[in-house]
Design goal:
By secondary structure, this protein is mostly helical. The chain has 10 helices and no strands. It has one domain: MetI-like fold.
C-alpha cells in the first residue's frame, strides 16, 4: 500500500474575513422600513425634542431644578417620608396579594391541560365556553390601567391606600392570570394528564403535576410584579391612592422643591432596594 494514500488531504487555506457585513443590504432595508413605519407615529405625537433646548425652556428647567436645593431634611419631614414609604411598600404588597387571590383561581379555570374533558382530544362545549369567558375577564382586568381603577375607587371608597390596593389587585390580577396560564400551558403536560386519567382531581393534578415543574418561573414572575407594584403604588398616589406618591403630589402643588427632591431620592432608593431583593430571590430560585 502506498504511504501517500494514507496521508490526509492538504488543508484549504482559511477564507479571509469579509471586508464588510454581508447582510448590510437587508439590514439597511429593514431599518428604512422601520423608519417609514415610525414616521407617521412621530408626526401624530408631535414629538419635537429640540424644544427642550430653547432658551425659555432651559430657563424654566433651571428654575425648577434650582428649587430642589437645599433638600428638606427636618426630623418631622423625614419621619413623615419614612411612614409614607412604608405605606407605599404595604400598598404594593397588599395589592399583589389580592391580585394572587384573583389570578390563581382564574388561571386554574383557563388552563386547558387541567380540563378532564380535553383528555379525549376536544374540550367539551361547556368547559370551552367557561374557559373563553375567563380569558375575556382577564383581558378586561389587565386592559384597564391601574390608574383608571384608582380613579374609580377613589370615588367609591375615598382618598387613601384602599383605592391603591384595589387598583393594583384588579390590574395585576389580570396580568398574573394571563402569564400564569401561558407558563403552565407551555410546560410538559404528560404528568398532569397521567394524574387526571388515573382519577386525580384537577387541584391534585395542578399541585403534583404542573406546579413542581413551573414553580421557579411562576415565583420569579411574581417577584418581578411585586417590584412593578411598588412603582405603580407611587404613581397611584398622584390620584389619591395614598403613600409616597400622594405626599409627593402635595409637595409639588405647594412648589416645595426641597421636599420633592428628598422624596425623589427616597423613591429611587426604594425602587433600587426592590430591584435588589427581586434579583436576589430570582437567583435563589434559579
Amino acid at each position: 500500500m502506498s504511504t501517500t494514500a494514507l496521508q490526509p488531504p492538504p488543508r484549504r487555506p482559511p477564507r479571509p474575513a469579509p471586508a464588510h457585513d454581508p447582510a448590510w443590504l437587508s439590514r439597511l432595508f429593514w431599518l428604512g422600513a422601520a423608519l417609514v413605519l415610525l414616521w407617521p407615529m412621530v408626526v401624530a405625537t408631535e414629538f419635537r425634542p429640540w424644544i427642550l433646548f430653547e432658551p425659555k425652556n432651559l430657563e424654566v428647567t433651571a428654575q425648577f431644578l434650582g428649587s430642589f436645593v437645599p433638600p428638606a431634611h427636618s426630623a418631622d419631614f423625614l419621619a413623615l417620608v419614612a411612614r409614607e414609604t412604608w405605606r407605599t411598600v404595604a400598598i404594593a404588597t397588599a395589592g399583589l396579594t389580592l391580585a394572587l387571590v384573583v389570578a390563581v383561581p382564574l388561571t386554574l379555570l383557563s388552563v386547558r391541560v387541567l380540563s378532564i374533558s380535553a383528555l379525549s382530544g376536544r374540550m367539551a362545549r361547556g368547559p370551552a365556553v367557561l374557559r373563553q369567558l375567563v380569558r375575556w375577564l382577564l383581558i378586561v382586568l389587565r386592559s384597564v390601567p391601574e390608574l383608571v381603577w384608582a380613579l374609580v375607587f377613589v370615588r367609591v371608597v375615598g382618598l387613601g391606600p384602599t383605592a391603591g390596593v384595589l387598583a393594583i389587585a384588579l390590574t395585576y390580577g389580570g396580568m398574573l392570570g394571563k402569564v400564569y396560564a401561558e407558563i403552565l400551558e407551555s410546560g410538559e403536560p404528560h404528568t398532569t394528564e397521567t394524574l387526571l386519567r388515573n382519577g386525580s382531581s384537577r387541584l391534585q393534578a395542578f399541585s403534583f403535576g404542573l406546579l413542581p415543574q413551573n414553580a421557579a418561573e411562576l415565583t420569579s414572575y411574581t417577584v418581578y410584579r411585586w417590584e412593578c407594584a411598588i412603582r405603580s403604588s407611587v404613581v397611584l398616589g398622584f390620584v389619591g391612592g395614598g403613600g409616597l406618591g400622594q405626599q409627593l403630589d402635595n409637595s409639588m402643588k405647594m412648589f416645595n422643591g426641597g421636599e420633592v427632591f428628598t422624596m425623589l431620592v427616597v423613591f429611587v432608593a426604594l425602587v433600587a432596594m426592590a430591584d435588589r431583593v427581586s434579583a436576589g430571590l430570582r437567583r435563589a430560585l434559579g
